[in-house]
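A reminder before we start the practical. When you read a complex entry, don't treat the lines as separate problems. The point of joint prediction is that each chain is placed relative to the others, so the output describes one connected object in space. Small molecules and nucleic acid strands, if listed, are placed in the same frame. In the example below there are two entries. Take a minute to note the order of the lines before looking further.
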Amino acid sequence: MRVPLSPISELLTGRSFFLMLLVMCVLGSALMLIYTKHQSRRLHTTLQQLQNSKDALHIEWTRLLLEQGTLSSDVRIESIAREKLGMIVPTPNPEMVIKP
Amino acid sequence: MSYKTCKSIKYKIRYLILSIALLFIVGGLVFRVVSLHIFEQDFLRNQGDARTIRVSSIPAYRGMITDRNGEPLAISTPVASVWVNPKEFDKNHPQLLALANALDISLEELFEKIARNSEREFVYLKRHITPHASSEITSLAVSGVHLNPEFRRYYPAGEVAAHVLGFTDVDDRGQEGLEKAFDESLRGIPGAKRVIRDRQGCEVQTLEGLRETRAGQDVVLSIDQRLQYLAYRELKTAVTKYRAIAGTAIVLDVRTGEVLAMVNQPSFNSNLRVKLYNDGRYRNRAVTDAFEAGSVLKTFSIANALQNGVVTPTTLVDTSPGWMTVGGHVVRDDNKNFGVIDVSTILQKSSNVGITKLTLSLPPDRLHQFYSRLGFGSTTGSGFPGESTGVLHPAPKQSSFVLATLAFGYGLTVTPLQLAQSYAILGAGGIKRPVTFLKQSEIPAGEQVIDSVVARQMVDMLEGVVKQGGGTAAKVVGYHTAGKTGTARKVGQGGYQKNNHMAFFAGLAPASNPQFAIVVMIDDPQGALYYGSQIAAPVFSKIASGALRLFNVPPDIMDSQGLRVAQFGQTPCHD
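Here is the predicted structure of the whole assembly.
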């Protein structure tokens, strides 16, 4: 007469063992899915933040470009050079051409 | 029946009842699961999606326009537009006065606007508000009032480059000028994506991209902003000084056909177009307006004679007695008799008689052919919106007088840009290149339309005009320049007007190795001075000297007119 196996040792043999393995795999993959989903959402949030700051930086950049354009406008530079700094376009007399 | 069997029957009944009860429960659950999953799935999924899934748009910028050195000429910057949903609008919000102030309208106007559109769900209150006003409106948080991000175009150069650049409409689409010509590549296409949003409105996941964002491409123009400003300043000074109604100046790069500067008077501030003027100030006269240019075209009727091999620059022509009759009409030389002069003197003196004799010695169709090869009567290929071709008709075979008038620049119309291109052809050794507003990385292919020897002879003769002819005001210290003056009578009621003129100067600098073709046109000067040699030539001189300096062109006149050459062993600072 066969000695009946205890339930646990019965699970560790043959087909039952294989089934058990599959159950573990399913559970594992389910947990991994949760983990990766979480990761992907976190990364997506980061991406959003980076895109927002990129937009903000672009806005800032165009603003600075405009400011630079206003400050460096030829009209302004000319009036400052002529009136404030008393600069003139050199007449040819003090100019000297250097020939190679 | 024993007590034991009775008890077991009782258990069996209990067991049965329990089983049936459980079966019903399980059956109910299974039914619910099946119904949720199969019969109501679409409805439920839609409801869920409607609460979380949104289509979010990704804004796209309009590309920047820069000059050839990367200086920005047109930039789009984000601004907000305020809109209201009248159906959600909170009429009893305590801060409505602050809202009206931020919008720069009165409280009555605000209520009036909302009342008038009470049936709608979207009404703009104000477009393109300042960043300060938009942050104020955000902080007020009036229900039904929203901000919409949009773009506004700014032009740092303002009126200096207004005609070339053109402008965009309130929706950032090109309407005029190069903004319109290059709208296709400048325009950005906003993208869209489907996203999942959480309760706070943060995007948690992108499901799919619905439309790819296409950022507008930057356009690099051939314009040099410094030269553009310089030309604008000189033209404006001249137009104001001589009380002219309009003016145009163009600088072309002879070797590439690039437009380096193109300015017009009167101009407008492209950042602030508050009024609609009817005086044509929005028109880019340099390309849209064609005129009878007069004497500046005599250069080409002489080039035509040289090209056909009937004369050389030193061939002598008898122009006495200073007038002649052609087909019953009199052609005269301003009541002067130049006597026997050579071809280059004909150009210097701008002798109508000499030019008529040269042109009539050729087969009659040659001049028309020559003019069309130069590009008169067709566009320059610049692609500028609204470019005019000018008018060029072949002279009728039997009328030699019409042919003669064509030869001294009447009976055909050209735009200032065509004029600049034709002088650039002479400077480039007879090669015609398409005019372009885009910076070129290599020299574009051209077409030889004038013999290179003839082109060179013409430049030398034009240099003579500046040296001792009518163009002495076009001299530039340190450089040889070449060019031709012109004073054309304007056509008005009853034919050519006595007191309405257009002053022209077209020329090349430096003459020894031409790099710039410059055309200056001043329309209807009201003062005592109106000759091209008096008012257009000095503008040419100033623009040319600025261009030569900015582009670092070495002087071609040394040891004269005060320019000195440094010697070895001699340091400039000890001098």
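Discuss with your neighbour: Residues 570-575 of chain B have pLDDT under 50 and may be disordered. What might explain this?
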